[in-house]
Amino acid sequence: MCKLPLESAPAQGPSGFQMHCRRCGTYRVTHGVARTPFDPGDQWPFLSAATRQAHERGQCLMLDQDGWRKLAEEHSNSSVEKMKDLVIHRIGSRTRPGGFETLDPEIDFPLFDMKSAGELSNVTKQLCDLGFLVTPEVQRAATFSLTAQGWNRFSEMSKIEPIETYKIWFKPVTKDKEPPTYQVYLSRLPQFSQLYAVTVVPLNRDSPVPKDESHFWNRTSQHAAEAVKLLVNEELQSLNNDQPMHISDERLIKRSVS
Ligand SMILES: [Zn+2]
User: Sign of torsion, CA 4 9 11 12?
Assistant: First the structure.
């Protein structure tokens, strides 16, 4: 289907042939298709997306003469936002915080409803630029880890824990300046109990920018609010040379994500 050599010879079963491809995953074609293959034309990447994503879910799609178009169509109109979320979800569901996941652009682009390896390289670059992913310098091309912001997005998608947010501000350095203000986002990583992702976002240009805007919190006995307090003490307070004037308690802000 995608012109990569199959990993093994097609295996014949009662209803058709089973194929194994690194890019398209394992899928089946009917005897009819085996005799007279259909030509997906430029829709092949989206058909490849259908079979590969099914394969990753443990299913094996059967392709016949009529059904393939609908399967491809379901993957052919995904927005870039959806592609980004699919990448974050893939990495988040296969790593622990700080862990790295390798994506092979040539082999893995169908996982994200993309058309080519180039699209995957472009989207991962965007995600790095936006602060959702990091990649180690030595292996720039294909190895990625989620930042705390990436984990927050992953949690939102997983719809398990609400996000808590706090607004924190400090005394301005001079009277005519705005008070340095930060938003702190907190989310619980759904697959790891008691582990939190904390992201600090400076809200105005008078806020000194923390060295790391992403943190993980895994002190199991502490409530999330404690994580924020400690973060403020250890990081924001030293940046702003003072105690915070105010920490809002905008907790349990539930965001529903479709
Ligand atoms: Zn293939």
Answer: positive
